[in-house]
Structures are given as structure tokens and as C-alpha cells.
Design a protein that fits this description.
Elements: H1 21-31, E1 36-40, E2 50-53, H2 54-70, E3 78-82, H3 87-99, E4 102-105, H4 112-122, E5 126-129, H5 132-138, E6 151-154, E7 164-165, H6 180-185, E8 194-199, E9 209-213, H7 214-225, E10 235-238, H8 245-258, E11 261-264, H9 271-278, E12 282-284, H10 287-302, H11 306-327, H12 334-354, E13 362-365, H13 372-379, E14 385-391, E15 396-400, E16 414-415, E17 419-423, E18 428-433, E19 439-441, E20 447-448, E21 457-465, E22 471-476, E23 481-482, E24 488-489, H14 491-498, E25 504-510, E26 517-523, H15 527-534, H16 543-547, H17 550-565, E27 573-579, H18 598-604, H19 606-612
Parallel strand pairs: 1-11, 3-4, 3-5, 5-6, 6-7, 10-11, 12-13, 13-14, 26-27
Antiparallel strand pairs: 1-2, 8-9, 9-19, 14-15, 15-16, 17-18, 18-21, 19-20, 21-22, 23-24, 25-26
Helix pairs in contact: 1-2, 2-3, 10-15, 11-12
InterPro entries: AMP-bd_C_sf, AMP-binding_CS, AMP-dep_synth/lig_dom, ANL_N_sf
Pfam family, one: AMP-binding_C_3
Keywords: Fatty acid metabolism, Ligase, Lipid metabolism
């Protein structure tokens, strides 16, 4: 019997973990045909938004699947995708899954040798790339004897050269009669079929291909829905790379699961503009994103008159009191609830509205330890960042804080329903469960399991749990510093203490097999000029000028001393170098998911680091 379309106010019926992504797409087209599913702007960021409904998405991906089938793509084939967050990427991903193929996204900042490794490892015969810049990188692989790549599909019109234009993949309508093999493969996925392969970002070696099945992704989606509080068909701003597990879940799989509305943001630097337009109910950012937003707001606040800042500070104090009460698991008393409601309505919401965050009910972060001072800053606006933890190998989130089940600021929450978590004798976090991956892809197409005999995965992260079951991260096992005296130091702990001062935007602590720690500190490009303006430093000075200014150096000295006062003697930084140039993915110091590549930074600044030891 055909079911009647549901209204926008009704939540999607909860799918079971046995469902596949094509089944969710079919459900959305049947039950929510007129609801918006995908919106995007022209790639230059100007112009009107285009929107596809879930019914249109279903029709479009069927046409696109037929186009890929005509290229010879079939069940089990890997197809590489290197594009920004644009509709060709999102729709191709779903079309390939409907065809039974396995989409594999590649970071746009991947080095040629990483691209070559991935192409050889997954044996893809087809790659879909954005434009002329990507074609130049990928073309040599067509002649590489060790790579099976045969064809490039190019998204941008006019950039195809002699390669296949993406627009040519869209027969209108799908050929009738439908080819027998295409009809046989379309939407025939089973729960244990591979849904995607996600390559790790390669911070410590060559990227590894993490094979994830429909069953694992659906289990994680169900587990996440059990701990979040979101309105039906919630909006999601999609700006992180699709090659990152966070955006795969948040920007593709969860929207299909929830029948929600994805806004594509091809340029991550424009995410603030999109947030102000959409005013989303949920917003996810890796720690560096929340740090930059925090620095920008602090810079604005620092330029306000004293009387206005005092009003904001008073409202923030009430918001933090309200958050602390909830953190303890208590219902805020009526008097506090009234004060918070008034502070929020009169002071905090207008400030949040200026940035498009006034409707946020679920703010989240993951990927690296979140600086507690940044979380505390946002708590002062009534925005509690629900820090989470997980790996590509756990299909994303394994533990999370939750407004529904409880949170502890500074922790990464408790395990979601699809995983178990335990600690090894040395504190290494181990996980097992429904959403833990199948294994790593081998070049021959087989999958190498990384689990022990009982199904546990050693994650490489170090942590501890408290009496209420909340997990607290210490650091990556491989990144722990061991001093010449044999003391173990968590660099992330020290770095986050240093970054509590607004002037310090980024920090790297160094000292393995040394007698003391040193640090590279990067002056915050947004906070530094604002600080200078309020402290009598020449306002036309560049960030590079400010690095050498005596007043700025003196303030950074005080910031380092303040951090050291809260650290043990082994953790204290004895010397530092102050830098003006921000680290980023384009210059290689950060991964595309904005985690530090410590080895790259240490190599780049080897002379400066040696100088701090007088070598």
C-alpha cells in the first residue's frame, strides 16, 4: 500500500540498522517528496540558491547512476571523487551507491603522491574531478602502469579537455527500456555491502582505506539520534571535506536518515555567510573553527564601550551559571531560569543573531581536544558545545556529550549505543561494536581487519574515564612527549593551556627526549589587531609587525607564565618562538580536517626549535 506523504512537522520514522542508503532515499522520495533536501549557490558564492526536493534528488541520482553505468561502472567498483562541496560531488556519491559502486572522496589538498597511493590502493578505473587544476594532477595517473585509472570525468564545463564532461552523464530521461544490468544493480545493496572507503588523513604515514558498510553507518546514525535533540528535517551546513568522516556522516548519511536539508558551502571561508543566511538549529565545527569564531567575537567585544561589555559580561555569567547547573544534572531553579531567559532574550540572542547562531540547539565538535576556555566562552552565550570523540574507523562518533543524556565540559562524553569503550593498562582507548569498521582495504581488494580476537580496536588515543562514565582524552599515544628524564607529557594539554590567551591562536609544544619543553606560538590574526587597538599599539601595524612589538611580546610572556602556573614543572614551557604566519592545510601544517601535522611543523621550523635549545 502506498503511504501518504508526511508533513514537514513530522519526524521521519526511525529506520532499523538493517536499512541501506538506497532504501532511505526511496523512503524520502515517497514520504517527503516536496521537502527540500539539497541547496547550493553558484561556485563563486554569488547568485540565487538552487534547491532539489527529495523526490527530485531520487530522480536525479537515478539519471546519474545510468550515466555512470554507461561508462562501465558497476557493482563493487571504486570511483574516486575530488571536488569541493558542490552538487556534482554530493549527487554522484548517492548515485554511485545506488548503482552498487563504492564512492571514495579524496581531499582537495592531497599531495600527488597521496593521490597516487589512494588510486593504486583502491584500483579505481574512474575519477571524477572538479576542474583544470585537478585534471593536471590526475592526468599522469592515466599513463601509470601501476594504476588501473582509465577515465577522468570533469565537473566544470569548459575544463574537460579530452576527458568526459560531467554534464554528459545525465541522460534525460533514463533510457527506456532500462538496460538489464543497470536495472539489476540499481538499489540492490545489502546491509553488509561496502558503502564507502574513507582514507585517513595521513598525519603519521600513508593514508589507509577504512572500509565502511551500510550496516555500520546506519548503526551509527541510530546511535546519534538517540542522544541529540533536533527539530524534524533539520538544516545542515556542509562545509568540511567529504573525504572526512564527520562530513560524510553529517553532510550525506545523516541527512538521508533524517530527511533533512543540506546547504552546500563549497568555500569553507564563506561558512559564516551561509550560517547567517540559514540560521541553523545544528552546527558542527572542529576545534579550530570554534577557536576562530571565538577569536572573532572576542575581537568585536574588545572594541565595545566598557558599559556595554559590563552588560554582556553580566549576562554571560548568568548563562554560565545556568549551564553549570545543567552540567550537574540539576533542573535550574525558577529564579535562575527567569534570569537566564531575560539575559538570553535581551542581551545574548541579539549578539548570536548577528552571527546566525541564535537558533542553534545542538552545537558540536570533534577531531581534536577542545580547549576548555573556548567551550567556557560559548557557554557564556548559552551555547554548549557538545564535544565528541571518534575515528574514521568508528564511523565517526563513538562517545559524545548530550543535552539529552548529560554532559561534562572538558570531556568527550559517554559511549553511544553502537559501541563499547574500555581502557587498556596504559590508558589507550579501545572500542568495539556495530559501528566499528570492517578493516583496511588491501590493494588486492580484500579487507585487513585491525581488530583483536574479541573484536576490540586499539585506537591510539589515551584517555581516562570518571565515576559517571565520561571519557576524558589525554592525547594521541604516538604524540606523547617523553622527556630526557623519562616523564610523559601530553602536548595537547600544554598547547590548550597556552591558547587560553586570545593573542595565541595556535601552538605546538616540542621536547621529546629533551630536558625541558619549548613552543612555537602563532599570533592570532584576528585577536592581535583588536588587542593592539585597545592597548595603545599603532593600529596600522600588520600581524608581522606586532610579533616584534615590545608590548605584544610582554603580553605573550605573561600568557606563557599564566599557563605555566597551572602546569606541573615537567609540562612548563621554558622558551618559545612567536610566529606571524598562521598554519593551514594549504601550507601543509594542518590536515584538511585542521589537525596539526606535527612532523611537518617540526621539520619546517627545525632551525627555530634548535635555537630555543641553544643547539
Amino acid at each position: 500500500m502506498t503511504s501518504e506523504p508526511r508533513t514537514a512537522g513530522e519526524p521521519p520514522a526511525a529506520p532499523t540498522a538493517r536499512r541501506t542508503l538506497p532504501q532511505l532515499l526511496a523512503r524520502n522520495a515517497r514520504d517527503y517528496p516536496g521537502l527540500p533536501g539539497l541547496s547550493w549557490q553558484p561556485t563563486d558564492g554569488d547568485g540565487d540558491w538552487t534547491t532539489l526536493t527529495w523526490a527530485e534528488i531520487h530522480q536525479h541520482t537515478e539519471r546519474l547512476a545510468a550515466g555512470y553505468a554507461a561508462l562501465g561502472v558497476g557493482r563493487g567498483d571504486h570511483v574516486l571523487l575530488m571536488m569541493a562541496n558542490r552538487p556534482e560531488h554530493w549527487l554522484s556519491d548517492l548515485a554511485l551507491v545506488r548503482l552498487g559502486a563504492v564512492p571514495v572522496s579524496v581531499y582537495g589538498t592531497a599531495a600527488p603522491e597521496q593521490i597516487t597511493h589512494i588510486a593504486r590502493n583502491c584500483r579505481a578505473r574512474v575519477a571524477v574531478v572538479e576542474g583544470a587544476t585537478q585534471v593536471e594532477v590526475w592526468e599522469p595517473l592515466l599513463a601509470d602502469a601501476d594504476t588501473l585509472l582509465e577515465r577522468l570525468v570533469v565537473a566544470e564545463t569548459g575544463a574537460e579537455g579530452g576527458h568526459t564532461p560531467y554534464a554528459g552523464l545525465l541522460p534525460d530521461p533514463v533510457p527506456v527500456p532500462v538496460p538489464e544490468q543497470f536495472a539489476k544493480e540499481l538499489d540492490a545493496a545489502s546491509p553488509d555491502d561496502p558503502l564507502t572507503v574513507v582514507y585517513t588523513s595521513g598525519t603519521t604515514g600513508e593514508p589507509k582505506g577504512v572500509v565502511l558498510t551500510h550496516r555500520q553507518v546506519m548503526a551509527n546514525a541510530l546511535a546519534l539520534d538517540a542522544v541529540v535533540e533536533l527539530p524534524p528535517h533539520v538544516e545542515h551546513i556542509c562545509y568540511l571535506p567529504f573525504a572526512h568522516i564527520a562530513e560524510r556522516m553529517l553532510g550525506i548519511y545523516l541527512p538521508c536518515h533524517r530527511a533533512s536539508h543540506v546547504y552546500l558551502c563549497a568555500d569553507p571561508t564563506a561558512v559564516g555567510t551561509v550560517v547567517r543566511k540559514v540560521r541553523p538549529a545544528q552546527f558542527f565545527g572542529v576545534p579550530r573553527i570554534w577557536e576562530k569564531l571565538c577569536a572573532a567575537v572576542r575581537a568585536v567585544l574588545s572594541l565595545m564601550p566598557d558599559e556595554q561589555r559590563e552588560v554582556i559580561d553580566a549576562a554571560s555569567a548568568v548563562a554560565r551559571e545556568h549551564v553549570r547547573c545543567r552540567e550537574r544534572g540539576e533542573t535550574p531553579p525558577a529564579e535562575l531560569e527567569e534570569r537566564y531567559a531575560r539575559a538570553r532574550e535581551e542581551v545574548l540572542l541579539p549578539l548570536l543573531a548577528a552571527g546566525g547562531l541564535d537558533r542553534v540547539t545542538w552545537a558540536a565538535s570533534a577531531s581534536a581536544p577542545m580547549p576548555v576556555d573556548v567551550v567556557d566562552f560559548w557557554a557564556g552565550f548559552g551555547v554548549v558545545i557538545m564535544d565528541a570523540w571518534g575515528l574514521t574507523e568508528t564511523t565517526g562518533v563513538a562517545t559524545t556529550n548530550s543535552p539529552r543524556t548529560g554532559f561534562r565540559i572538558g570531556s568527550v562524553g559517554r559511549p553511544v549505543e553502537s559501541v563499547e569503550v574500555r581502557l587498556a593498562a596504559d590508558g589507550e582507548i579501545e572500542v568495539r561494536g556495530e559501528s566499528v569498521f570492517s578493516g583496511y582495504l588491501r590493494p588486492d581488494g580484500s579487507v585487513r581487519s585491525a581488530l583483536d580476537a574479541d573484536g576490540w580496536l586499539a585506537t591510539g588515543d589515551i584517555g581516562r574515564t570518571d565515576e559517571d562514565g565520561y571519557l576524558w582524552l589525554t592525547d594521541r599515544k604516538k604524540e606523547m612527549i617523553i622527556t630526557s628524564t623519562g616523564k610523559n607529557v601530553s602536548p595537547a594539554l600544554v598547547e590548550n593551556a597556552l591558547k587560553e590567551h586570545p593573542l595565541i591562536g595556535q601552538a605546538l609544544v616540542h621536547g621529546d627526549r629533551r630536558s625541558y619543553l619549548v613552543a612555537l606560538l602563532v599570533l592570532d590574526a584576528e585577536a592581535a589587531p583588536a588587542w593592539a587597538a585597545t592597548h595603545g599599539v599603532e593600529v596600522d601595524a600588520t600581524v608581522a609587525d606586532l610579533v616584534g612589538h615590545p608590548a605584544v611580546r610582554a603580553e605573550v610572556d605573561r600568557a606563557v607564565a599564566a599557563a605555566n602556573s597551572r602546569l606541573s614543572s615537567t609540562e612548563q614551557v621554558k622558551r618559545y618562538e612567536l610566529l606571524a604566519e598562521e598554519w593551514g592545510p594549504a601550507t601543509g601544517e594542518l590536515t584538511p580536517s585542521l589537525k596539526m601535522r606535527r612532523r611537518v611543523i617540526r621539520d619546517k621550523y627545525a632551525t627555530a626549535l634548535s635555537g630555543l635549545y641553544g643547539d
